[in-house]
Structure formats: C-alpha cells, structure tokens
Amino acid sequence: MTDKRQRNPIGGHVPVAGGLAASGISYADDIGAEAVQVFVANPRGWATTSGKPEQDEKFRDACAERGVPAYVHAPYLINFGSHTQATADNSVSSLRHSLRRGREIGARGVVVHTGAATGGRSRETALAQVKLLLRPVLEDLTDDDPWLLLEPTAGQGFSLCSQVGELEPYFEALGRHPRLGVCLDTCHVFAAGHDLAAPGGVKRTLDELEAVTGPGRLKLIHANDSKDVAGAHKDRHANIGAGHIGTDPFAELMVHPATEGVPLVIETPGRKEGHAADVARLKELRERR
Ligand SMILES: [Zn+2]
C-alpha cells in the first residue's frame, strides 16, 4: 500500500478561496488527497496577489506532515505563442509570479499550458517567441525553485503542442533545460488523438513521450476522463470511469515505468463528494496490480 502510494500519490486540484491552508488543506483531507494542486492567482485573469506568509507556512507544514506533494497551476490566459504583445508580456509576469509563489508554498512544480500560435502566425514564429520569452524564465530557476511543467493542450485552435510528438520542437526550443518537465493531462492527450482506451494505447503514448523528452521529465499527471471521443480536440473533463477513457487505462498508467514516482491529480467536474469518489476510484485502480 505504502509502496504504491509512494509510486503514484493520488490527489486533486483543491480550491483555496478562504486561504491556502485554511481551505485547501481541509478540502484535501476531505477528498483523501495524497497530492494537491492549487491556483495562486485568478486562473482567468492577469491580476497577481501576494501570499499571506502565515498561510504559506501552515500550508507547507501541513503538506510536509502528510507527505503530500504540492503543485501550482498557472493561469489559463498565459500564451507564450500569442501575437499580442500585451498577452506575451503578461504571460511572462504571470508565470514568474506563479513560480515565485510556488517556491514560497513549497510546490514541486508549476504547470503551464503550452499555448497556441494566434493571429495567423506560423508555428515557427510562435515557437521562436516561446524560446525568447521562456528561456530567461528557466535560466533564473535554481534548485530550490519548482520545476516548470509543460502541459500539452487538447489540440483546439492553433495549439503549439497537443500530441506527444509535438513536445519535441518545444523541448528543443527551450534547450532541454534541466528544470523543464511535463504535466500530462489524460483528457487532453486523448482529445489530441492518442487513444488511451485502445489496447496498448497507454503504453504507446507513454513510450513515445519518454522517447521524445528523455527519461525523468514526466513529473505530474492530470487524471481526467474525457466527455468526448479520442481525437475530438475537445477539452471536456469527465469523472474517472464516466467518460470515453474508462477505468482500465488509469490502472495501466500506474504500472508504466515512465510514471514511477509521478503523482496523479484529478481536475474533474462536480463538488467534493464527486472528487472524493474519483480519488477513491483511482486508489482502487492503483491496488489492482
Ligand atoms: Zn489539466
């Protein structure tokens, strides 16, 4: 049991309105979370807020006591491929804020979406801008800072990275920086065309991911089922087992060598009871083998 928990802690994204420790930790306890993810800013805005040092400390202590690793999800508006100068500028300051707050709360990683080439610009132009904007951010990270975790999207619009193979040019653009990792969202990768529900689908996808990024880059999994079929390019999360991925692929995921030590965090619909049920279901699947 303990071994399996260490191999793949299972938890969820927790709401923190009312205080990181005061709200976030009690929610995590209520759903049985062994790993947590939080927002440290409005996920749909650019406004940044400074933390409350005593909440930060309580949060860090509570996570340490429970042996629960913490992660930050950066705001959704961030797009390093944007043709709009204001969006590009805001993306940098917003991500730097999430990284700083991540360090303050003891987070292991900060998740950021890989973005899109907007305004009719080419992927090459957009990726060149990703390189220009993100490299200095990476260069400023020390060993005490969180990892920067790239989360491929569902492939909607002019997404820069949705299929696993598209991580290759992205990693290249960022010089395969040592603090660069991946957060794989099961719903996104399924929507992007990797059929995790097909026989061997999980193995194929994770083998390819490891071949592209090299070993040890997968740092977090967003465990979400999908309301839509494989390849639909739609980002609609479903509760575990209630979508087109189903339960078996999650069990397979937790025995693949690439997921050794990698936490699973749910971002599924519903409220606390539903989240607790998803966490419990994933724990059952983890015990299967
Ligand atoms: Zn996600």
UniProtKB/TrEMBL annotation:
InterPro entries documented for this protein: AP_endonuc_2, AP_endonuc_F2_Zn_BS, Xyl_isomerase-like_sf, Xyl_isomerase-like_TIM-brl
Annotated cofactor note: Binds 3 Zn(2+) ions.
Keyword tags: DNA damage, DNA repair, Endonuclease, Hydrolase, Metal-binding, Nuclease, Zinc
Xylose isomerase-like TIM barrel domain span: 27-284
Entry's transmembrane regions: none
Binding site for Zn(2+) 1: 73, 113, 151
Catalytic activity: Endonucleolytic cleavage to 5'-phosphooligonucleotide end-products
Pfam families the record matches: AP_endonuc_2
Domain of life: Bacteria
Cofactor entry: Zn(2+)
Gene3D superfamilies named in the record: Divalent-metal-dependent TIM barrel enzymes
Residues given in the record as Zn(2+) 2 binding sites: 151, 185, 222, 267
Binding positions (Zn(2+) 3): 188, 235, 237
Listed EC numbers: 3.1.21.2
GO function term, MF aspect, one: endonuclease activity
Translocase among keywords: no
Known function: Endonuclease IV plays a role in DNA repair. It cleaves phosphodiester bonds at apurinic or apyrimidinic (AP) sites, generating a 3'-hydroxyl group and a 5'-terminal sugar phosphate.
NCBIfam families in UniProt: nfo
Family, as annotated: Belongs to the AP endonuclease 2 family.
Protein name as catalogued: Probable endonuclease 4
